[in-house]
UniProtKB/TrEMBL annotation:
InterPro entries: MFS, MFS_dom, MFS_trans_sf. Residues 28-470 form the Major facilitator superfamily (MFS) profile domain. Its main location: membrane. The keyword Kinase does not apply. It comes from Lacticaseibacillus paracasei (Lactobacillus paracasei). The chain crosses the membrane at residues 33-55, 67-86, 98-116, 122-145, 157-179, 185-203, 215-234, 240-257, 269-288, 314-332, 339-359, 365-386, 407-425, 445-466. This is MFS transporter. SUPFAM superfamilies: MFS general substrate transporter (SSF103473). Keywords: Membrane, Transmembrane, Transmembrane helix, Transport. One of its GO terms (cellular component) is plasma membrane.
Length: 479
């Protein structure tokens, strides 16, 4: 056993101080493990974005277009929940065991998808759930490794790399989805099986320290997951069973958090107007987030009659805009939270509306240029709205707020894609559009994007109207 001299404890785990021999040893291990975790994380994001792009194609091929949004929505809910869980577990349990288990789950999902996905849409959903749950471990472990075993001066560089990898992985996923779908989309699953190659190196270089004391509210997370799943299923096929299930699970969750000793979210959060309003802005603002790529793909396939490969070649430039602007932190800091959030939501909402009005002007305008407006806005939204959320509670509760932010983003995007995906598949609102599109499928897509744009602009209105309440608990200089 290595000596713990010169170490401090975080939740019972000794963490060596910078400059000590033990720190140098752990830093060396971390620098070897970090690129490996980034590779696994890259594969996970690639899979998420790729299947989010072509679930419409998969649904048609398997004869279940109405259920196709579940390929994105259900894994999205799971992803939101595990983000909160993993962030907590990383402070208590062995990073080695956590990463190895997650990687094996990721690989298992990939194998299931490759072997059984073409047979049944539920096999695709299950495979994507396992990929989402397993692949996210690498991202969470990356952040823990950096926060504990990388020097303070170098951490900001690693965090910027993390954001850049996320954005560029998304771009690669969109491009790859378009080309692979033209051959056989199950090869997307096969590509992710490569993660197994990195398991021996991860086992060798990851820390194996652990401590007692982790409190994971399994009941609370299960209830909120069941509620989100029931709501998603209701918006997918609109039947009474899922409506009743949504009400029952919501009531059970409310009762539970009022009775439990250590719920992951306490009733006091819901008595905090600043917190509730900020979460509302996040919920409404991200409602269309999972729908955009799939909607663009559907327009390309059914309006302009081009392949998903050609669609991805056009859409990828929008995502690259967001990737490059991911480094605009200094600009956001100079602008301030309020100006950045107003700019972000304005461009996000207007970008969706622009896509609807661009359809009559051709595929380049609708699939390449207009989406850039939306993605430009997203680059200015995440950081300031998360900072705003942490200001609504005490410093001791900020960790839970960060986790809840991830959870709400996943839930709202999942509900949105289930609702809008079903509308696009069923041809709703096809009688014509104020965007100048004739009746038919084009009208459906135009109207879906118009509704999405109005919803995002509603988030902007909520933010502006309740601005004073949202920042009522924040220091004046941070508003």
């Amino acid at each position: 056993m290595a000596s713990n001299a010169g170490a401090i404890e975080q939740n019972g785990i000794p963490v060596p101080e910078e400059g000590t021999p033990e720190y140098e040893k752990m830093n060396k291990m971390a620098r070897r493990a970090i690129p490996l975790t980034l590779i696994i994380f890259t594969l996970g994001i690639l899979e998420q974005q790729a299947f989010g792009m072509i679930f419409v194609n998969i649904g048609k091929q398997l004869g279940t277009p109405g259920l196709a949004p579940l390929i994105t929505s259900i894994p999205g809910i799971v992803l939101g929940i595990v983000c909160v869980i993993y962030g907590s577990l990383g402070d208590f349990i062995s990073l080695k065991k956590m990463t190895l288990l997650g990687t094996w789950i990721f690989v298992a999902g990939s194998i299931i998808g490759f072997a059984f996905g073409p047979m049944n849409i539920w096999a695709v959903v299950i495979a994507r759930v396992l990929q989402s749950a397993g692949g996210q471990v690498a991202g969470s472990v990356f952040l823990v490794l950096v926060s504990k075993y990388v020097s303070k001066a170098a951490r900001v560089i690693y965090y910027q790399i993390f954001v850049a990898v996320f954005r560029f992985s998304a771009a690669i996923g969109v491009v790859l989805a378009g080309y692979v779908e033209a051959i056989d989309w199950r090869w997307l699953f096969a590509a992710a099986i490569l993660a197994v190659v990195f398991i021996p190196a991860l086992a060798k270089n990851l820390p194996d320290q652990h401590a007692k004391g982790a409190r994971i509210d399994g009941v609370g997370f299960s209830l909120i997951g069941l509620f989100a799943g029931a709501v998603t299923m209701f918006f997918t096929n609109m039947n009474w069973f899922w409506a009743i299930a949504s009400i029952v699970t919501l009531i059970a969750f409310i009762v539970y958090i009022n009775k439990a000793k250590h719920p992951f979210i306490t009733p006091s959060f819901f008595k905090n107007p600043a917190f509730i309003l900020t979460m509302t802005v996040i919920f409404v603002g991200y409602f269309f987030s999972y729908t955009l790529n799939a909607g663009i793909n559907a327009i390309g396939l059914n309006v302009f009659h081009i392949s998903s490969a050609e669609v991805s070649n056009m859409l990828v430039w929008s995502i690259l805009v967001a990737a490059v602007l991911g480094f605009c932190g200094p600009l956001i800091k100079k602008m301030g939270r309020t100006a950045s959030i107003i700019l972000a939501l304005s461009f996000m909402g207007l970008g969706l509306i622009a896509i609807a009005f661009a359809i009559p002007y051709g595929k380049v305008a609708a699939l390449a240029i207009a989406p850039c407006i939306y993605y430009f806005g997203t680059s200015f939204f995440y950081s300031p709205i998360v900072d705003t959320a942490t200001l609504t509670v005490s410093a001791q509760e900020s960790g839970r707020v960060l986790g809840l932010n991830d959870l709400i983003q996943a839930i709202t995007g999942s509900i949105g894609v289930a609702l809008f995906g079903n509308m696009m598949a069923s041809g709703a609102m096809s009688g014509g559009s104020v965007a100048g599109v004739k009746a038919g499928q084009a009208a459906t897509y135009a109207n879906v994007f118009l509704v999405g744009g109005v919803i995002v602009l509603a988030a902007l209105a909520i933010y502006i109207i309740f601005h004073k309440v949202i920042y009522s608990r924040a220091p004046k200089e941070t508003k």
